[in-house]
Amino acid sequence: MEAVIGHDEIKDRFRTAIRRDRLPSTFLFLGPEGVGKQTFAMALAKSLLCQGDLKDPLEACSECESCKLFDAGISEESKRVKDVDLDLNQHPDFKYVKRRENRNSLLIEQFIGKDDRRNKEGMVHDISRSPSLGKRKIAIIDDGDSLNHECANCLLKTLEEPPARAVIIIIGKIEQGQLPTIRSRSQLVHFKALAIDQVKLVLQRFPGESLLAPIEEIATRSNGSLTILQQYQSRDLVEFRESFFNQLASRDITAGGFVKKLSDCVDQAGKENPVRRQRARQLVDFAIEFYRSVGLRLVGSEIDMGGDRLLMSAVEKVVADWDTDIDMVADCIDRCLDVHRHLNANANLSNLIECWLSDLGKLSRGEIGYHEIKQVGAV
Ligand SMILES: [Zn+2]
C-alpha cells in the first residue's frame, strides 16, 4: 500500500474496518481514471490475502507464500500485451476480471464460465470455493462501467449472499454509470483526483530520463490524474503534439496530408488494436486540451499551463487571429467527445480519424455547427 500515494482517508477507513473485523464484502471504487483506484484495490487485495502477522493491516509482508504468488501474478501480467483476458491466476484465492479488448462489455463467461464449462469456472464460481492459502477469497472486477445487465444478474446472488470473508471490489468511474442493482449492494468508495503535489511525488519515482518534460509541467497538466504520463514517455507523441497544435490553430486541419500524418502517429504506437486505440484517445485528448485552453482564454480566464510553451503559443495565436466565439469552441470539444465514444464502441479507426479532422476544420472555421454534423450522422 505504500505504493499508493494519497487517498489517506480511504486507507484509514479500511484499516479501521479490518482491525475491527468488520469489512463489508462488496466495494464499488469510483473516481476518475489515473488516480490509483486499481493500484489501491490490488494493494488491498494483497494485504487481505497476506499470511503474515501484520502491524499495519494494509501493508502486506511481501514474504509469505501468498504475497509471493500475488506478486508473481502481477509481474506476469505486466509482460503481456493488454489484449488478452488477464485473471492474474497465479494466486489460487484471487481473481481479477477486466473487459477484454474489442469488447464493449464484460462477458458472461468471465463470471460463470463458457457454455461447456457453465458454473464450473469464472469469477462467481471461483469465489464460492473455500480459500486455499489463507482465510479469504478476493475478486477485483475492473471496468465496472462496462458491466451489463446479464453479467450483473450472474453476480447478484454472490453479492447478496457473499461467501464468508470474501471481498469483491468493483472499479468504475462515476456513480451514475453503475447499475442500480450493483450500486445498492456495494459499499461506495469515492476516490478524488490527486493534488498536484501528490502527482509530483509519483513522478519523482520515475527515472529522470524516462520523462520527456519537467515534472512541474507534467504535474500541472495532469488534472490530478496519472493518465498524463502516457504522453510523456513517447518521443513521437511529444513531437506530434506540437505539430497537431499548429494544425488545429491553422483551422485548415486536413491540409498538408495531415489525416495521413495523424494516422501514422497512431500506427507508430504498435500493431495491436488496443494500443492503437489508446494512442488515438491520446490524440483526441490533445485536441480537447487545445480547445479547452482556447475556451478559457476567450472568457478571459488565466490558465496555468505549467510552463507548457507549446500549448501557450498555439492558444495565443488562435485568440489573436480567430474571429470566433465560445460556442464554436464548445462544438469542437463535443465533436472530440463523439470520437471518444466511437473509439470505445470500436468504430473503424481510419474513417473515424478522417471525419473527425474534417469536421473540426469546418467547425473551427464556422462553416457548420455541431448540431448540423449530428443531423447528417457523423461517424
Ligand atoms: Zn504476506
Explain this structure to me?
The protein has 379 residues and is of the alpha/beta class. The chain folds into 2 domains: 8-190, Rossmann fold, CATH 3.40.50; 234-376. Helices cover 50% and strands 6% of the residues. The chain has helices at 8-19, 37-49, 65-79, 108-112, 123-128, 149-160, 180-183, 196-203, 215-221, 235-250, 258-268, 273-298, 309-321, 326-344, 349-364, 370-376, and strands spanning 26-30, 94-97, 138-141, 167-172, 187-190. Strands 2-3-4-1-5 form a 5-stranded parallel β-sheet. It is globular, with a radius of gyration of 23 Å.
Comma- or semicolon-separated keywords:
Rossmann fold; 16 helices
The domain count comes to 2
Structural class: alpha/beta
Output the CATH topology of the largest domain: Rossmann fold
- Secondary structure: helix percent: 40-55%
CA-CA gap between termini: 43 Å
H/E topology pattern: HEHHEHHEHEHEHHHHHHHHH
Tell me which CATH architecture of the largest domain applies here.
3-Layer(aba) Sandwich
Global shape: globular
Mean pLDDT over the residues: 87
Total beta-strand segments: 5
Write the SSE topology.
Blueprint: H1 8-19, E1 26-30, H2 37-49, H3 65-79, E2 94-97, H4 108-112, H5 123-128, E3 138-141, H6 149-160, E4 167-172, H7 180-183, E5 187-190, H8 196-203, H9 215-221, H10 235-250, H11 258-268, H12 273-298, H13 309-321, H14 326-344, H15 349-364, H16 370-376
Parallel strand pairs: 1-4, 1-5, 2-3, 3-4
Helix pairs in contact: 8-9, 10-11, 10-12, 10-13, 11-12, 12-13, 12-14, 14-15
Bound molecules: zinc ion (ZN).
Please outline what is shown here.
This protein is of the alpha/beta class and 379 residues long.
